[in-house]
TrEMBL record:
InterPro entries: AhpC/TSA, Thioredoxin-like_sf, Thioredoxin_domain, Tpx_Peroxidase_subfamily
Descriptive protein name: Peroxiredoxin-like family protein
Organism name: Pseudocalidococcus azoricus BACA0444
SUPFAM superfamilies: Thioredoxin-like
Pfam families: AhpC-TSA
Keyword Ion transport: no
MF-aspect GO terms: peroxidase activity
Domain Thioredoxin: 32-186
Length: 186
């Protein structure tokens, strides 16, 4: 029998240090103001094996950051899985608008590599198993994983748009994020 909130019944790797660190609910309280500077970070890119620094990207082009909720290489958040697929399908549209799209997960490198293969991800997947970047951006957490959120960063390193998780509005759609890119100052 398939459980409704999981993509498979394989729960291997679900209960780990990250699970316990993110178990108790913490609401998304991101204090970043539109137009304000955003925190920089550096994380490994799962597909390439190297690290990427946000500030080195935003000087070249706008950056869309999509924090996502993946429990393990076998278990995806039921709100985030369709969102990940939509972003991946629209990845070329983000590039056509001159932006980079980064997907950030709290799964470790090994689990993340399996996610890349499973979902055939074209967009860069960044691994943040210690959840330090999720915490910098105060995306919140609940039941074993940080909550999803989306941000658009200008070429000046300033926040143009943010969307924080709620049960009424889980994720900003790819079409919404693409429309927001059109509103960036020239």
């Amino acid at each position: 029998m398939q459980l409704p909130f999981f993509s498979s019944n394989n729960f291997t790797g679900l209960v780990n240090d990250r699970f316990w660190q993110n178990f108790f609910p913490v609401p998304a309280t991101n204090p970043l103001d539109i137009g304000g500077l955003v925190p920089d970070f550096e994380l490994p890119v799962v597909q390439q094996g190297d690290r990427i620094r946000l500030a080195s990207l935003w000087v070249e082009k706008p950056v869309v950051i999509a924090f996502t909720r993946i429990f393990t290489q076998h278990q995806y958040c039921p709100f985030c899985l369709p969102h990940i697929k939509d972003l991946n399908q629209q990845y070329e549209a983000f590039q056509a608008k001159g932006a980079e799209l980064l997907l950030i997960t709290s799964t470790d490198i090994g689990q993340s590599q399996m996610v890349v293969t499973d979902l055939q991800l074209k967009m860069p997947l960044l691994s943040d198993p210690d959840c330090k970047t999720f915490k910098k951006y105060q995306t919140g957490q609940a039941l074993g994983a940080p909550l999803p959120a989306q941000f658009i960063i200008t070429t000046a390193g300033r926040l143009h748009y943010k969307h924080l998780f709620s049960f009424f509005d889980h994720n900003a759609s790819a079409s919404r994020l693409l429309a927001e890119l059109d509103e960036l100052p020239a």
